[in-house]
Amino acid sequence: MTVVDGHLATLLRQRGLHLTQERSDAAEIVYVCLEDGLPGGYPIGYALPSRAGTWFAYARARPGRIFACDQVGSGLFSVESAVHAVLRHAYYGDVLQAMELATGSTTVYLADLPRRHLARLTALLGPDGLTRLGSGRIRLTAAAVAYLRGLPERFGCQVDHEDRIWLAGEQHPLVRESRSRGETFTARRTPASRSA
Prior knowledge:
Elements: H1 6-14, E1 17-23, E2 28-34, E3 42-49, E4 55-59, E5 70-76, H2 79-89, H3 93-103, E6 108-112, H4 115-125, E7 130-134, E8 137-141, H5 142-149, E9 157-159, E10 164-167, E11 170-173, E12 175-177
Antiparallel strand pairs: 1-2, 2-3, 3-4, 4-5, 6-8, 6-12, 7-8, 9-10, 10-11
């Protein structure tokens, strides 16, 4: 399906998403799908027209619910606005994480974050995938980064297509490091900053 809105088309491409359309006698449904290597992709939400000429938006908004979607918008005036609503609410980080784990990747990412963001990031990721190295420096596994790429915009924490982590509207670059299998990292000691 072709999307007229250039910003939306770019956003879908950057997130590894695409639209598919299904028509029947009853309705035209526009699915937002994750490119997972299978034909058609993995649906993370859809837009459905109403009889009044407006659109409804449904998204996979709760983790662990495989194909269940919740209504996240109604009375929307275009299919583009309905797809934007899906993108704001769709939760598919668990799917991206599972896909990344299946690859066996040993890639890690380093980032320097203000300490005020570390507790929130740790709460989102849990103990797996994040290592605190001290002085605001963290190491994230590729699976953790994949998970963060699929969080809804409303969470205020996401990794974008340029390997930047966004926390509370602030961007912080991720530095990608590859390692060979079996190689381990040791935390480098960095002197604590001196603040009066």
